[in-house]
Amino acid sequence: MTTRVNRTSRALFANRTKHTRWLAVLLLPLVAVITPPARPEWVGDALESAGIVCLVICLVGRGWTSVYIAGRKNTELVVAGPYSIVRNPLYVFSFIDLIGIGLISEVMTILAVSLVVFVIYYAFVVRREEAHIAAVHGKAFLEYKKRVPRWFPDFSKWKDARRLEVEPRRILNHLVDSSLCFLAFLFFEMLDFLRAAKLIPLQIVLQ
Questions:
Q1: 80 and 159 Cβ atoms separated by less than 8 Å
Q2: Is the pLDDT of residue 17 over 80?
Q3: Helix axes 41-69, 182-196, angle to 10 degrees
Q4: N or C: the chain end with fewer CB closer than 10 Å?
């Protein structure tokens, strides 16, 4: 039973990761030729700063969440810490990460389209994952599902664990994966340099 659960969980994770990476690869050429409209410098600086704050929140949040779930998500129903206030904290922090990337791009069209795609795709992903978890944990998950919201944290339901046994390697892997979001910042900084040097011949201005 445990082996089958682990295989299913790995398959769901692998598909999600593969789809995300392919989407990023397909969008890179399009994003490279999109440029933000002319704005006062302080507006651009404010958008970039807000975006960096979002990236930091994502990094810290996903690292914090991994302390509770790393190494036990396939065998336990995790209901403490961030999972006591929202059922999908990792995805919530990924959503914040996406907002940050959109703000750093300074192109609100990219932000809007990315958020719509995220909501549609992860609504489907979460339904599949929750069906899998319900099959594994049965009544315990159904009670948890009734009590804890899927997307919007309810801080009044906060409940922590007195003690956790953690696997440092898994937490480090989560932090490394989450830190890759800062590559988006470097990518858009590089685009700014290339635009200023007029090395990108085609530029599409979008709001």
A1: yes
A2: no
A3: 160
A4: N
What are the sequence ranges of the domains in the chain? 2-26+38-205
Q: Does 1.10.3470 match the CATH number of domain 2-26+38-205?
A: no
β-partners of residue 35 are 205
Tell which wins on pLDDT, 121 or 75.
121
Tokens encoding 187: 């990518």
- Residue 10 clears pLDDT 60, i.e. is over it: no
The answer to whether residue 57 scores a pLDDT higher than 70 is yes
Contact 100, 181 (CB under 8 A): yes
Alpha-carbon distance of 200 to 113, in angstroms, equals: 23
Residue 108's identity, in one-letter code, is: M
Contact assessment for residue 19 and residue 121, using Cβ atoms and an 8 Å cutoff: yes
Report the pLDDT averaged over residues 35-50.
Answer: 87
How confident is the model over 6-25, as a mean pLDDT? Answer: 58
